[in-house]
Design a protein that fits this description.
Layout (H helix, E strand, L loop, with lengths): L9 E4 L4 E5 L10 H7 L4 E5 L14 H14 L5 E6 L1 H12 L4 E7 L8 H14 L7 H11 L2 H6 L1 H11 L4 H12 L15 E6 L7 H5 L8 E6 L6 H4 L1 H15 L2
Parallel strand pairs: 2-3, 2-4, 4-5, 5-6, 6-7
Antiparallel strand pairs: 1-3
Helix pairs in contact: 1-11, 2-3, 4-8, 5-7
Length: about 260
């Protein structure tokens, strides 16, 4: 996927031990700019676009395919092993990566993510969103505006509306089918809770305290299963906590990376 045209879909900065970032649904690699800017003084920091933001957005595909895509990115950039940071869908993928490719993993960071399956009611709600994407070329503005209340916390929507507007306008440029396949890649994904104990690298769980898309209790519950896990809550942030409160997230990430690569 990424071998021929990697430079179009990747930001690769700094040198040193490597950390790779994978974004969530509707987002792209630029959501991690605050993390790459903050960490590149000591680390090689890489953020890449998942296939929904590339010219290979057509599906169907699933989270295992996305995990293998991540390996392809690492191979193309000659990265043997890295700390993998996944936000939301990127976290769903990162858990599969940890189970499918453990030899490539030095540590795992899950931002506003979870391991359990979506409930029937949640699948119906997201399925209704998918229905709105059928038969239209671009993402409808009404749907994009609704999604801002899910992907951003109340504090961000109130105090930094320009940040929300930036992403809303970005979403309106997407092919609707690309978003449809992106949602379908994770909507029916099975529960991985019983397999978390197999992940034997250090794990950091970061979660916005205003996240309404995935309640923080679902994130915290993963810590009961990881052999080596820790949790950081992010005040004043919703589902996109690393963009909403980057200083808090960057501090947690640096401490975690310093511990792993000490």
């Amino acid at each position: 996927m990424y071998r021929r045209r990697t430079e179009q879909y990747v930001r690769d900065v700094g040198s040193g031990p490597t950390v790779v970032f994978s974004h969530g649904t509707l987002m792209d690699r630029t959501m991690f700019d605050p993390q790459l800017d903050a960490l590149s003084d000591e680390y090689r920091a890489i953020a890449y676009d998942s296939r929904a933001r590339t010219d290979r957005w057509r599906g169907p595909y699933d989270l295992n395919d996305l995990a293998d895509d991540c390996v392809s990115v690492m191979d193309a950039l000659t990265v043997d092993r890295a700390v993998l940071v996944g936000m939301s869908m990127g976290g769903f993928m990162a858990l599969r990566f940890a189970l499918r490719h453990p030899e490539r993993l030095a540590g795992l960071v899950l931002i506003d993510s979870k391991a359990d399956a979506y409930t029937e009611a949640e699948r119906a709600e997201y399925g209704a969103m998918v229905d709105q994407l059928e038969g239209v070329e671009d993402v409808p503005r009404e749907l994009a505006e609704l999604v801002t209340t899910t992907l951003f916390g109340e504090t961000t929507r109130r105090e930094r509306p320009e940040q929300v507007e930036h992403w809303l306008n970005r979403w309106l440029t997407y092919p609707s089918a690309a978003v449809k396949y992106e949602i379908e890649s994770w909507l029916d994904a099975p529960d991985l809770t019983d397999r978390l104990a197999e992940i034997d690298v250090p794990v950091l769980v970061v979660h916005g305290e205003e996240d309404v898309a995935i309640d923080s209790t679902r994130a915290k519950s993963m810590l009961e299963h990881f052999p080596d896990g820790r949790f950081v809550g992010v005040p004043g942030a919703g589902h996109s906590s690393n963009t909403e409160q980057p200083d808090v997230v960057n501090e947690a990430l640096r401490a975690f990376l310093d511990e792993i690569y000490d």
